[in-house]
């Protein structure tokens, strides 16, 4: 039996620049976002945003605008917290994100109970919906006299769902898995069987864009 092959970490100039100059911060407690950051291979800390995520969705022209605005508020809140309580002179590189599921351009919330979860799943059953993730990045300028840099963008991923009998959707709702998830399902959990095809970035569904590591 051959020895396990050793795979080294991805090493690109941006990673070295961050490692040498910044404290990388993930402004999220999401296990899925944490998993993606673990794969980057850079040391980072988690600082959770206190932003209540209560922006009026109806005031935004598109779901993309909403997730970018929410992610930006999360990042700003964490940046303010770190500047007030963190180590003086430390330079931060903060990444925040927000993700929503939409159907017919309507943002789907987390279902309040199992019956609402079934109704939401029925609205997605056999059709196609979208997942939007917005990302906001705040980068301290290495010259302390300058304002930090702000970057924000979004991405959309289309998801086609298989069509199932209502009894299958009810069985899934009974697991409780849909209750803490926007759109009433989690592709990384027990809802893995629902999507038929993914059009776009898989990791966008997992709550943060896969090209984030390369863009850092």
Automatic annotation (TrEMBL):
Cofactor(s) named in the record: a divalent metal cation
Q: Does the keyword Hydrolase apply?
A: yes
The question of whether Protein biosynthesis is a record keyword is answered with no
Give the UniProt keywords, A-Z: Hydrolase
Which GO molecular-function terms appear in the entry?
nucleoside triphosphate diphosphatase activity
**Listed InterPro entries:** ITPase-like_fam, Maf-like
NCBIfam families from the xrefs?
maf
Question: What HAMAP family does the database record attribute to this sequence?
Answer: Maf (MF_00528)
Name assigned to this protein: Uncharacterized protein
User: Which species is listed as the source?
Assistant: Mycoemilia scoparia
What is the phylogenetic placement of the source species in the record?
Eukaryota, Fungi, Fungi incertae sedis, Zoopagomycota, Kickxellomycotina
